[in-house]
Design a protein that fits this description.
The structure is a homodimer of 164-residue chains. Chain A has 164 residues and is mostly helical. Chain A contains seven helices and two strands. Chain A has a domain of 114 residues: Arc Repressor Mutant, subunit A (Orthogonal Bundle). In chain A, helix 2 packs across helix 6, helix 3 crosses helix 6 and helix 4 packs across helix 5. The first copy, chain A, is globular and about 55 Å long. Chains A and B meet through helix 1, helix 2, helix 6 and helix 7 of A and helix 1, helix 2, helix 6 and helix 7 of B. The first copy, chain A, binds a DNA duplex (23 and 23 nucleotides) through helix 5.
Chain lengths: 164, 164
DNA sequence: TATTGTTATACTCTATAACTATA
DNA sequence: TATAGTTATAGAGTATAACAATA
């Protein structure tokens, strides 16, 4: 009975488990790297998002990232205090803050991009360029199948489930 | 300058980011599935570990999973209360508990294996069998490069970093 | 009254530090 | 005193609920 169940499993350590293991470790390493410029992964995600679509309100940005707007406040406070972003109050409807990167913020984003590129090279170090492209094709299809939004980190999403 | 930095990035959404995204989502889905039999991913990991190496003490098991022994107490309480495991006190040194799966625990582990197999099929649904094998080869090499212990979920590890 | 942004509260998770019982 | 297991304490992170300002 147990051997029978066992036989149904395709591999000792399946792709799904490997993906979870690797994903968690890659996230942890990215967190360490991005910590080197005094940011968290969440901060870096906001810089990317604001650069991609400047002028959004906090509510609109939260909707894009599929997270609660309350979560953004402290993160944006940090970035604003650092001079990386501006909250421009809309004169026509003074409840809205339009989010924009400053000059310094654009420079900081360049640093983030450099960190991300180094991270990318690190994680895929044992693969050849052809294998990286192969992997990218496979992963893109899985990401699509799982309904993942390109560029939106799942850490922003509102799940009930356990993190690991 | 910024365009120059951008050009260094190999792809819009690199493999590292995709791995993080997919890993987090896969973990979340597994958590939902395993919740269907009133367990968390952590509980299921303990069942696997105790089955793989029965008779370990709680300290020894914690060391294998690279986590604090205090973290295991409540999880083992749950499994014991459910009749899935036993803490057998060692008569020669009565400080040690030798951990063992019960008959019921073996049955529960079979259910966990079925859930894991369904999860595996779900995550890799869009791939052919040949592609799954290809992916497995690439992921195994990356996991090895990242120093991951086969079968040990990173969720048990003691990092300081952010979870996502 | 409805909406934007903010602050406050409560809850979960976990790391660390006491504590007990055995040796 | 040293170790295995347990319990208690404290901290981080976040989801939810209240709140103030504006429309």
């Amino acid at each position: 009975m147990r051997a029978n169940e066992k036989a149904r499993i395709p591999r000792r350590h399946g792709n799904a488990f490997l993906l979870t293991q690797i994903g968690a470790r890659a996230a942890q390493r990215y967190g360490e790297r991005i910590g080197g410029i005094e940011l968290t992964p969440a901060h870096s995600g906001l810089l990317f998002a604001i650069d991609r679509e400047p002028g959004l309100s906090q509510q609109a940005l939260a909707a894009k990232l599929d997270t609660a707007a309350t979560r953004l406040v402290a993160l944006l406070d940090d970035l604003e205090q650092r001079g990386a972003i501006e909250r421009r109050r809309n004169p026509e409807d003074r409840r809205h803050n339009a989010l924009h990167l400053t000059e310094a913020g654009a420079g900081l984003l360049d640093e983030v991009r450099a960190v991300a590129a180094a991270h990318e090279r690190d994680v895929t170090a044992p693969l050849t360029e052809a294998e990286r492209a192969q992997l990218h094709g496979l992963l893109t299809r899985i990401a699509d199948h799982l309904g993942l939004t390109p560029g939106v980190h799942p850490g922003y999403r509102n799940y009930g489930g356990d993190c690991p």
